[in-house]
Design a protein that fits this description.
- The complex is a heterodimer of chains A (531) and B (351).
- Chain A is built from 18 helices and 17 strands.
- By secondary structure, chain A is an alpha+beta fold.
- In chain A, helix 8 packs parallel to helix 9 and helix 17 runs antiparallel to helix 18.
- The termini of chain A are far apart.
- By secondary structure, chain B is mainly alpha-helical.
- Helices cover 76% and strands 0% of the residues of chain B.
- In chain B, helix 9 packs across helix 11.
- The longest helix of chain B has 44 residues.
- Chain B starts with a helix and ends in a 5-residue tail after the last helix.
């Protein structure tokens, strides 16, 4: 009896393992499979999300007035807006809306939809609304300042004069996606302007429509047949939730996935040598930073801050854990943007750090609690700093975990993480790292890393940042940013930058046209698999 | 006093005691679940993740943060929050998940069948192999069969399950390509079968979709075998020791002395006496599998309760955490009750 059971069970097992027709096939030619970690994805409302994976999806379900091409991100191109003009005083932007664009519902896209969508972003006031709110738009003035003047013209007036690129770049962000206002009219729940509905559905005009979303499992998007630029080549795009780097690596290697987006440096390295896959390193507009709380007596000493700059192993990390995740950069304007300078004066130097500590009055060092996010590569960077600091006499009690809440509330001693900005302009980074209008606890400027660090940024730096944002002359701006950059480097900042963020993706060689986008708007309609 | 009154009284006494018993067990169940919720609620508050930031994002300004903080009811004292949560639960409303934006109940209805499918298969495999193996090794105690069985069991017991999982994927997926890498189904069969049970194997059978059925079976077999192996290790150890204990009893010696063959002694006598114990450990193993599949679910990208609960914990999504914990609690109690009923049925002494 026993024997019979064993035989029966093992034959069932063997049968299912070798069941015919189940041999693994590469992904079909007309479907794109992307391996992602979607665990932090919540909702797909363009006016609510604030995260890389969600942005890529929204970028393909919806469209925006302006397009920033992946290969030339600082050159605004027509999108839903066929053309635009900026008034001589730099405050009024007039957009001519393209005709013949259809939403997924079949409704035509009109100037009214643009007006409604931009107003909605500001009125909802959720995280991505910063994209417009930072230029002075508020729920009270947006009705007056953003308006459709006829069926195909939209006027956007800014409360102050800003460099026009800042406004145009903002109108290319996923948050300023154009929504189908007519379709959403009856989806309103308690004045939420369709927010609840849009968590799991789309109301866009983009090349893809959302077909299925199963949280932490799968997202399927179908090509939109009536897309105004023609039906995309990939009939379907499937995003699979695969949180493990090693699992992503195996699947892209075997051809079950075409793109893998969350791989460790080790796995990326192994795939790169394998030859079936190309590794894309997309530069981002954020930094790996070390924040030293200036409310702390010891850490507020400029020489102590300076000492930390000598405790980071820039070159050692650059070749290992940061190989795919960052580019060494000690200045504050991201490489490639106006005002960037190629200057990295610091290197790992324990003796120099010791000397600075002695000069600051701490020859025997000190100990501090150090919060770091336990994800690769941030934690490896933190561990490396901890080891070097120990050699200089600084004992860092490294604590992993999610401490961003404490950072926001200034309740920390040392903290490190990485930032990510979406505006291809130095202003985005500088605003957060180099302005702090009011350094009191009550001011609660929690959006600014400088405030969180309680760093009273030198006034001349702050003034220059503000002036540069308002400057309309492009060459003057470049000059200003260069100056800011130098001044920031010289100020021994409380926010130490070590690496410029890059986002790495592995793409199989047969997949063409999947191009990582610095502001997270990677397109799927440009993808083909050699057909 | 007539006999009928006597009988009636006895009858009502019986009914009363049965009623009391039922009331007691219901009270015990309710207290257990309440305790479970309180502990989870308190622990959830100590997680160093900020649920508001998880919703609004790191860069949100203070006014947005404050608004959502209020919306989520976090400004109220913790006991008020807990009280209102309990009141909702009584109305069978488990609240909304901040992460998925769905009702927790509907999320659970989707993820739990995936885990149930995996755990049930693993239990069948574990018990199907483990119990006979344990009995065999008890009967052949000291022989090579016993040694082999014990080594196999020991390995299953002491090897980390995620390590086995990764190794299996590496060998059978990456090298031989005979198993899929993860997920519940081939991507191309996605969406062909939906509902009613959310168990793809059952649903595809009901719908007569054979491709989907094979694909689902093909996907479940590796994780189920690995989990089943771990369960087998435990169950074979337990059944071995149960059986050894029986074999030392005098009635077995008597039976042997009477000239009864080994098979009837083992199956008709000894096995009958360990059925109840076996049922208990199988039920325990099943409960363990239902909430212990986190690692294997991660390795095999299996969208089940384990993954759901982990990500809920990571983002301090308390409604989802509490809902999942409550579900695990209820299922554990239900399995225990069920095994209770079954052994009353098979063992007259416990009636």
């Amino acid at each position: 009896m026993l024997r019979r059971h064993v035989i029966l069970l093992s034959s069932i097992a063997a049968l299912s393992l070798c069941a015919p027709g189940l041999a693994l096939a590469a992904t079909p030619k007309d479907q794109l499979v992307v391996a992602m970690d979607t665990s932090s994805l919540r909702g797909l409302d363009p006016n609510e999300i604030n995260q890389l994976e969600a942005a890529e999806i929204v970028a393909n379900l919806y469209e925006r007035l302006i397009v920033l091409p992946a290969d030339n991100i600082s050159k605004p191109q027509p999108g839903i807006a066929e053309s635009w003009t900026v008034s001589p005083d730099g405050k009024t932007f007039t957009f001519k809306i393209r005709s013949g664009v259809k939403f997924h519902s079949g409704n035509p896209l009109t100037a009214k939809d643009v007006e409604w969508s931009l107003r909605r972003l500001v009125k909802l006031g959720l995280a991505p609304s910063t994209d417009l709110r930072q230029w002075g738009f508020t729920a009270d003035n947006v009705e007056k300042l953003i308006r459709a003047t006829d069926g195909s013209t939209v006027v956007v007036e800014t409360p102050e004069v800003w460099n026009s690129n800042l406004i145009l770049y903002s109108l290319a962000s996923f948050s300023t996606s154009i929504l189908d206002s007519k379709f959403l009219a009856d989806k309103d729940k308690g004045g939420d302007m369709g927010r609840e509905f849009l968590q799991t559905a789309d109301a866009g005009s983009g090349p893809y429509t959302l077909r299925t979303w199963r949280v932490n499992e799968l997202i399927i998007a179908d090509a939109f047949k009536d897309y105004w630029q023609g039906e995309p080549k990939m009939r379907r795009v499937l995003l699979r939730h695969i949180p493990e780097s090693s699992a992503q690596r195996l699947q892209i290697d075997a051809g079950d996935a075409d793109v893998a987006t969350r791989l460790s440096s080790t796995d990326l390295g192994a795939l790169e040598t394998g030859g079936k896959v190309t590794i894309q390193k997309t530069p981002g507009f954020g930094f790996y930073y070390l924040a030293l709380n200036q409310k702390d007596e010891i850490l507020s000493k400029p020489k102590v801050r300076e000492a930390f700059r000598y405790l980071i192993d820039y070159d050692g990390l650059a070749g290992t854990v940061m190989k795919y995740y960052g580019i060494k950069q000690q200045t504050i304007v991201p490489a490639g943007l106006p005002g960037a300078i190629d200057k990295n004066p610091y290197k790992l130097d324990i003796e120099k750090a010791k000397q600075l500590l002695t000069e600051a009055g701490y020859p025997n060092g000190f100990s501090k609690v150090y919060y770091a996010t336990p994800v690769t590569p941030e934690y490896e960077v933190a561990q490396s700093l901890q080891a070097n600091a120990a050699k200089a006499g600084i004992k860092l009690d490294l604590q992993g975990g999610d401490h961003i809440g404490k950072f926001r509330n200034r309740q920390f001693e040392i903290f490190s993480a990485r930032s990510g900005d979406r505006l291809p302009d130095p202003h985005a980074v500088l605003q957060s790292y180099a302005t702090n209008a009011n350094n009191t606890d009550e001011a609660k400027l929690v959006g600014l890393n400088a405030w969180r660090t309680a760093w009273d940024v030198p006034k001349e730096i702050q003034q220059m940042v503000t002036a540069a944002a308002h400057e309309t002359d492009q060459s003057k701006r470049v000059g200003l940013y260069t100056k800011i950059n130098e001044a920031y480097l010289a100020s021994s900042p409380a926010l130490v930058t070590s690496f410029l963020r890059t986002d790495a993706k592995a793409v199989r060689n047969e997949v063409k046209g999947y191009i990582g986008h610095s502001t997270w708007l990677t397109r799927w309609d440009t993808v083909n698999k050699g057909n | 006093m007539s006999q009928t009154t006597e009988t009636r009284r006895a009858g009502s006494r019986k009914l009363l005691s049965a009623g009391r018993k039922l009331a007691t067990s219901l009270a015990v169940i309710a207290t257990t679940l309440l305790g479970l919720l309180i502990i989870t609620f308190v622990v959830g508050r100590m997680i160093p993740a900020d649920p508001v930031i998880a919703v609004v994002g790191d860069q949100a300004d203070q006014s947005t943060y404050d608004r959502v903080y209020k919306e989520m009811g976090l400004d109220r004292p913790i006991y008020v929050q807990f009280g209102s949560y309990l009141a909702d639960i009584v109305r069978l409303d488990f609240g909304q998940s901040h992460v998925t934006k769905n009702q927790v109940a509907s999320d659970l209805a989707r993820v739990f069948p995936a885990t149930l499918e995996l755990a049930t298969l693993a239990t069948i495999i574990g018990a199907g192999f483990g119990v006979p193996l344990g009995i065999l090794s008890a009967v052949r105690k000291g022989t090579w069969v016993d040694h082999v069985a014990r080594i196999v069991g020991l390995l299953g017991h002491s090897t980390p399950i995620f390590w086995i999982g990764t190794t299996v994927i590496l060998i059978f997926y990456a090298n031989f390509g005979v198993i899929p890498a993860g997920g519940r189904i081939d991507i191309y069969n996605e969406g062909l079968v939906e509902g009613p049970t959310n168990s793809l194997i059952v649903d595809s059978l009901l719908a007569g979709e054979w491709d989907v059925f094979w694909s689902a079976l093909h996907h479940v077999i590796a994780p189920a075998l690995i989990l089943g192996y771990a369960a087998m290790a435990y169950l074979s150890r337990m059944s071995r020791s149960f059986m050894l204990e029986q074999l030392r009893q005098e009635y077995i010696l008597t039976a042997r002395a009477k000239g009864l063959g080994t098979r009837p002694i083992i199956w008709r006598h000894a096995f009958r006496n360990i059925r109840v114990q076996l049922l208990t450990v199988v039920a325990l193993a099943y409960c363990g599998l239902l909430d212990g599949t986190v690692l294997i679910e991660t390795v095999f990208s299996w969208p089940g309760l384990g993954q759901y609960l982990t990500s809920a914990l990571f983002f301090a999504d308390m409604n989802a955490v509490l809902g999942s914990v409550l579900l695990i609690g209820i299922i554990s109690i239900a399995i225990n009750l069920l095994s209770d009923i079954v052994y009353r049925f098979i063992d007259p002494r416990t009636r």
